[in-house]
Amino acid sequence: HCDITCENLMSCRVNGKVIGILYNYDRASSLVQSNQPLGNKQTSGIPFMAIDLLHYNDQGGQVQHRYRHDMESFIWAFVWMSLQYKDGKLRSTGPLDAWAEANGIECLRLKGAFL
Fold first, then answer.
1. N or C end: fewer C-beta atoms under 10 angstroms in the chain?
2. What are phi and psi for residue 22, nearest 5 degrees?
3. Tell me, what's the pLDDT at 98?
4. What burial class does residue 113 get, using C-beta atoms within 10 Å of its C-beta: 0-12 exposed, 13-18 middle, 19+ buried?
5. Would strands 85-86 and 9-14 be described as parallel, antiparallel, or unpaired?
6. Which residue ranges of the chain lie beneath pLDDT 50?
7. Predicted local distance difference test score (pLDDT) of residue 72
């Protein structure tokens, strides 16, 4: 997929069960078919990016995107939703606001401090 963000995740209830849905595949198919390293050039959600893709050496798109990068992005999206939302609504100010305003290198530092 290469673009896991909160905006690309949604859920619905089906027969009393919550079903998670990842959508917005319009860009993803062309990215997945490419064998070129992507780094973070193709990704819009820096707060949700895998740490590997935020490193200084990887800012130029020299890292081949792997499935594990999407899995890590899911984890960061769940962390974000857990801390930035309250009762299903985005907080006016949240503990991770700085992540949304940071560039890749700064977000890497902030995530390191978070861990």
1. C
2. -105, 125
3. 96
4. exposed
5. unpaired
6. 29, 37, 39-43
7. 94
Exposed/middle/buried for 48, CB within 10 Å: 0-12, 13-18, 19+?
buried
Place of tokens 């890292």: 63
Report the distance separating Cα 56 and Cα 90, nearest Å. 30
Mean pLDDT, all residues of the chain: 82
User: Residue 76 class from Cβ within 10 Å (0-12 exposed, 13-18 middle, 19+ buried)?
Assistant: buried
Q: What is the DSSP string of 9-60?
A: EEEEEETTEEEEEE---TTHHHHHH--S--TTTT-S-GGGS-HHHHSGGGTT
Tokens 């064998």 correspond to 35
Residues in the chain: 115
Provide the 10 A C-beta neighbour count for residue 2.
20
